[in-house]
Task: structure prediction
Amino acid sequence: MATLLRDGARLRITDTGAGRSVVFQHGLGGGEAQAAQTCPDGFRRITLECRGHGGSGLGERRPFSFEMFADDVIAAADQLGLDRFVAGGVSMGAAIALRLAYRYPRRVTGLILVRPAWTFSAAPQNMQPIAEVAELILEHGTDKGRRMFAQSETATRLYREAPDNLSSLLGYFDRPDASAFAQVLANIAGDGPGVGERDAAALDIPALVVGNAMDAVHPLSSAYTLAAAMPDAVFAEITPKARDSAKHFSDLHQHITSFLQTHSSLRSPIPS
Result:
């Protein structure tokens, strides 16, 4: 692993495998382990653990934002001498990848967006449960906040409709750094990738967008919307993780591998 120092934050970078370079980012609250679980082998994968995630520090800058996280990823790519790459990610990582493609079109040759939670606006309604968790931790602490959330209408609804989401949300209260990390949750839940529908339509690169049902935080409709907006995107619906985790990841690996093999000659952007 390598490290990158920015704004007082030491950020951890994983650079593993060989072949085509794919910068693949984790979700909100995730890290290298999540990226490794989500991505199949067979290519060079670079993952930067975002500020406050995994082994990366929080740093001095506030607020946390998609702009900040995407700029950190580009700084990591620069440090590794990585000029062009496929950008991908899960949930928050998918939004970071989308922003990278929009902001650095001459560097990103393809997109892999897994279970996207954001489309074209900030603070989407599906992120409200995460904002709710953040507010409870910041105002009441982890123990009382967890009890309050477990008794909330949001938790009751998710227990019925998306138990995997509920498990992830309760996990935020159990983090050893929960009080500090709650500010990351609050800022990112209220932010967006800063990419409009017209911007997405102008992305002339191959894209894979993957979604699944039984997921209130990552609605299937968000994946549909993103896939429909981009001219060279393919959409894939896979087994929900809440129904069969092993099948979910098997489906996902097959689609990512197939996408990369199909576009084995992903054209390189024209240098400026």
Notes: The two ends are 31 Å apart (CA to CA). The longest strand covers residues 9-16.
